[in-house]
User: What shape does this take?
Amino acid sequence: MDVAHPYAAVTPGVDGAVLVVLAGTTAPLTGRQIARLAARGTSPSVSAALDRLVEHGLVHRQVAGRAYLHTLNRDHVAAPAVQALAGLRGELLRRLRDAFARWELAPVHASMFGSAARADGDTSSDIDLLVIRPDGVDAEDERWRDQIHALAESVYAWTGNHAGISELAEAELVKLRRKPPPVLKDVGAEGIDLAGVPVRSLLKVKS
Assistant: This one.
Protein backbone atom coordinates (compact mmCIF):
# COMPACT_ATOMS: atom_id res chain seq x y z
CA MET A 1 0.00 0.00 0.00
CA ASP A 2 1.19 3.49 -0.81
CA VAL A 3 0.99 4.99 2.68
CA ALA A 4 0.74 8.51 1.27
CA HIS A 5 -1.99 7.59 -1.22
CA PRO A 6 -3.71 4.38 -0.05
CA TYR A 7 -6.41 4.65 -2.73
CA ALA A 8 -3.72 4.16 -5.40
CA ALA A 9 -3.90 0.39 -4.83
CA VAL A 10 -7.29 0.49 -6.58
CA THR A 11 -7.18 3.62 -8.73
CA PRO A 12 -3.58 4.78 -9.21
CA GLY A 13 -4.23 7.57 -11.72
CA VAL A 14 -5.21 11.20 -11.31
CA ASP A 15 -8.89 10.21 -11.19
CA GLY A 16 -8.38 8.58 -7.82
CA ALA A 17 -6.67 11.64 -6.38
CA VAL A 18 -9.45 13.88 -7.67
CA LEU A 19 -12.17 11.67 -6.20
CA VAL A 20 -10.47 11.50 -2.81
CA VAL A 21 -10.25 15.29 -2.68
CA LEU A 22 -13.94 15.65 -3.53
CA ALA A 23 -14.92 12.93 -1.07
CA GLY A 24 -13.25 14.93 1.69
CA THR A 25 -15.45 18.01 1.33
CA THR A 26 -18.94 19.10 0.40
CA ALA A 27 -17.70 22.53 -0.71
CA PRO A 28 -17.72 23.09 -4.49
CA LEU A 29 -14.16 23.30 -5.83
CA THR A 30 -12.62 24.64 -9.01
CA GLY A 31 -10.30 22.47 -11.05
CA ARG A 32 -7.36 24.57 -9.89
CA GLN A 33 -8.28 24.04 -6.23
CA ILE A 34 -8.65 20.30 -6.79
CA ALA A 35 -5.26 20.13 -8.54
CA ARG A 36 -3.60 21.91 -5.60
CA LEU A 37 -5.23 19.66 -3.00
CA ALA A 38 -4.62 16.46 -4.93
CA ALA A 39 -0.93 17.28 -5.34
CA ARG A 40 -0.80 14.75 -8.17
CA GLY A 41 -0.74 15.19 -11.91
CA THR A 42 -0.89 18.46 -13.82
CA SER A 43 -3.71 20.96 -14.22
CA PRO A 44 -4.54 19.57 -17.70
CA SER A 45 -4.60 15.98 -16.38
CA VAL A 46 -6.87 17.01 -13.50
CA SER A 47 -9.17 18.80 -15.96
CA ALA A 48 -9.27 15.69 -18.14
CA ALA A 49 -10.06 13.53 -15.11
CA LEU A 50 -12.87 15.85 -14.09
CA ASP A 51 -14.30 15.71 -17.63
CA ARG A 52 -14.37 11.90 -17.45
CA LEU A 53 -15.93 11.84 -13.99
CA VAL A 54 -18.57 14.39 -14.98
CA GLU A 55 -19.38 12.28 -18.04
CA HIS A 56 -19.91 9.25 -15.79
CA GLY A 57 -22.14 11.29 -13.49
CA LEU A 58 -19.90 10.73 -10.47
CA VAL A 59 -19.01 14.42 -10.25
CA HIS A 60 -21.44 17.33 -10.52
CA ARG A 61 -20.27 20.42 -12.40
CA GLN A 62 -21.81 23.87 -12.26
CA VAL A 63 -20.87 27.14 -13.92
CA ALA A 64 -19.71 29.99 -11.68
CA GLY A 65 -18.74 32.97 -13.82
CA ARG A 66 -15.70 31.93 -15.82
CA ALA A 67 -15.00 28.93 -13.62
CA TYR A 68 -16.51 25.50 -13.12
CA LEU A 69 -17.27 24.21 -9.65
CA HIS A 70 -17.21 20.50 -8.86
CA THR A 71 -18.71 18.30 -6.13
CA LEU A 72 -18.90 14.57 -5.62
CA ASN A 73 -22.31 13.17 -6.55
CA ARG A 74 -22.99 11.34 -3.30
CA ASP A 75 -26.17 9.81 -4.73
CA HIS A 76 -24.20 7.95 -7.40
CA VAL A 77 -24.07 4.17 -7.00
CA ALA A 78 -20.25 4.38 -7.02
CA ALA A 79 -20.09 7.07 -4.33
CA PRO A 80 -19.85 4.60 -1.39
CA ALA A 81 -16.83 2.98 -3.08
CA VAL A 82 -15.21 6.40 -3.48
CA GLN A 83 -15.81 7.23 0.17
CA ALA A 84 -14.37 3.86 1.18
CA LEU A 85 -11.23 4.59 -0.85
CA ALA A 86 -10.94 8.00 0.78
CA GLY A 87 -11.20 6.37 4.21
CA LEU A 88 -8.58 3.63 3.81
CA ARG A 89 -6.09 5.25 6.20
CA GLY A 90 -8.81 5.56 8.82
CA GLU A 91 -9.74 1.91 8.23
CA LEU A 92 -6.13 0.86 8.91
CA LEU A 93 -6.14 2.78 12.19
CA ARG A 94 -9.48 1.20 13.15
CA ARG A 95 -8.14 -2.29 12.49
CA LEU A 96 -4.98 -1.62 14.48
CA ARG A 97 -6.97 -0.31 17.45
CA ASP A 98 -9.30 -3.29 17.30
CA ALA A 99 -6.32 -5.66 17.19
CA PHE A 100 -4.73 -4.14 20.28
CA ALA A 101 -8.08 -4.14 22.09
CA ARG A 102 -8.20 -7.93 21.70
CA TRP A 103 -4.74 -8.55 23.18
CA GLU A 104 -4.82 -10.79 26.22
CA LEU A 105 -1.70 -8.99 27.53
CA ALA A 106 -2.56 -5.35 26.94
CA PRO A 107 0.28 -2.95 26.07
CA VAL A 108 0.98 0.04 28.27
CA HIS A 109 0.98 2.04 25.06
CA ALA A 110 0.78 1.50 21.30
CA SER A 111 1.02 4.08 18.54
CA MET A 112 1.76 4.47 14.85
CA PHE A 113 4.53 6.84 13.76
CA GLY A 114 6.87 7.44 10.85
CA SER A 115 5.84 7.79 7.22
CA ALA A 116 2.54 5.97 7.73
CA ALA A 117 1.56 8.49 10.43
CA ARG A 118 2.79 11.44 8.36
CA ALA A 119 1.21 10.05 5.17
CA ASP A 120 4.33 10.83 3.16
CA GLY A 121 5.75 7.40 2.32
CA ASP A 122 5.10 4.94 -0.50
CA THR A 123 4.58 1.23 -1.16
CA SER A 124 8.03 0.38 0.25
CA SER A 125 7.40 2.10 3.58
CA ASP A 126 7.05 0.13 6.79
CA ILE A 127 4.04 0.64 9.02
CA ASP A 128 6.01 1.82 12.07
CA LEU A 129 4.50 0.94 15.45
CA LEU A 130 5.71 1.55 18.99
CA VAL A 131 4.56 -0.98 21.59
CA ILE A 132 5.35 -0.62 25.29
CA ARG A 133 5.42 -3.95 27.16
CA PRO A 134 4.05 -3.76 30.72
CA ASP A 135 6.15 -4.54 33.77
CA GLY A 136 5.67 -8.13 34.82
CA VAL A 137 5.57 -9.43 31.25
CA ASP A 138 8.84 -10.98 30.12
CA ALA A 139 10.12 -10.09 26.65
CA GLU A 140 10.07 -13.79 25.75
CA ASP A 141 6.64 -14.52 27.20
CA GLU A 142 5.07 -16.82 24.63
CA ARG A 143 1.69 -15.11 24.74
CA TRP A 144 3.31 -11.68 24.28
CA ARG A 145 5.48 -12.86 21.39
CA ASP A 146 2.48 -14.50 19.73
CA GLN A 147 0.62 -11.19 19.92
CA ILE A 148 3.52 -9.30 18.34
CA HIS A 149 3.92 -11.86 15.55
CA ALA A 150 0.18 -11.95 14.84
CA LEU A 151 0.12 -8.15 14.64
CA ALA A 152 2.98 -8.11 12.14
CA GLU A 153 1.24 -10.73 10.00
CA SER A 154 -2.05 -8.82 10.12
CA VAL A 155 -0.42 -5.53 9.08
CA TYR A 156 1.16 -7.25 6.08
CA ALA A 157 -2.14 -8.91 5.14
CA TRP A 158 -4.03 -5.62 5.43
CA THR A 159 -1.57 -3.45 3.52
CA GLY A 160 1.20 -5.41 1.81
CA ASN A 161 3.65 -3.39 3.93
CA HIS A 162 5.90 -4.81 6.60
CA ALA A 163 5.30 -3.77 10.19
CA GLY A 164 8.27 -2.03 11.78
CA ILE A 165 7.54 -2.78 15.43
CA SER A 166 9.67 -0.97 18.02
CA GLU A 167 9.18 -2.64 21.38
CA LEU A 168 10.18 -1.19 24.75
CA ALA A 169 9.65 -2.36 28.31
CA GLU A 170 7.76 -0.05 30.64
CA ALA A 171 10.83 0.09 32.93
CA GLU A 172 13.02 1.16 30.00
CA LEU A 173 10.64 3.98 29.19
CA VAL A 174 11.10 5.54 32.62
CA LYS A 175 14.85 5.80 31.99
CA LEU A 176 14.48 7.08 28.43
CA ARG A 177 12.03 9.91 29.07
CA ARG A 178 14.72 12.48 29.96
CA LYS A 179 16.93 11.67 26.98
CA PRO A 180 14.62 10.01 24.48
CA PRO A 181 16.14 8.08 21.55
CA PRO A 182 15.12 9.01 17.98
CA VAL A 183 12.20 6.59 17.95
CA LEU A 184 10.59 8.26 20.97
CA LYS A 185 11.22 11.72 19.54
CA ASP A 186 9.46 10.65 16.36
CA VAL A 187 6.55 9.24 18.34
CA GLY A 188 6.29 12.45 20.35
CA ALA A 189 6.23 14.56 17.20
CA GLU A 190 3.91 12.51 15.00
CA GLY A 191 2.59 9.50 16.90
CA ILE A 192 -1.04 8.46 16.50
CA ASP A 193 -2.43 6.75 19.60
CA LEU A 194 -3.70 3.21 19.14
CA ALA A 195 -3.94 1.78 22.66
CA GLY A 196 -3.12 2.47 26.29
CA VAL A 197 -1.57 5.65 27.66
CA PRO A 198 -1.73 8.56 25.16
CA VAL A 199 1.53 9.78 23.60
CA ARG A 200 1.52 13.09 25.46
CA SER A 201 1.25 11.38 28.83
CA LEU A 202 3.64 8.62 27.83
CA LEU A 203 6.56 10.95 27.17
CA LYS A 204 5.90 13.43 29.96
CA VAL A 205 8.89 13.67 32.28
CA LYS A 206 7.80 13.20 35.88
CA SER A 207 9.38 15.49 38.44
User: Anything to note?
Assistant: The longest helix spans residues 142-159. Residues 6-86 form a domain with the Arc Repressor Mutant, subunit A fold (CATH 1.10.10.10). The longest strand covers residues 127-133.
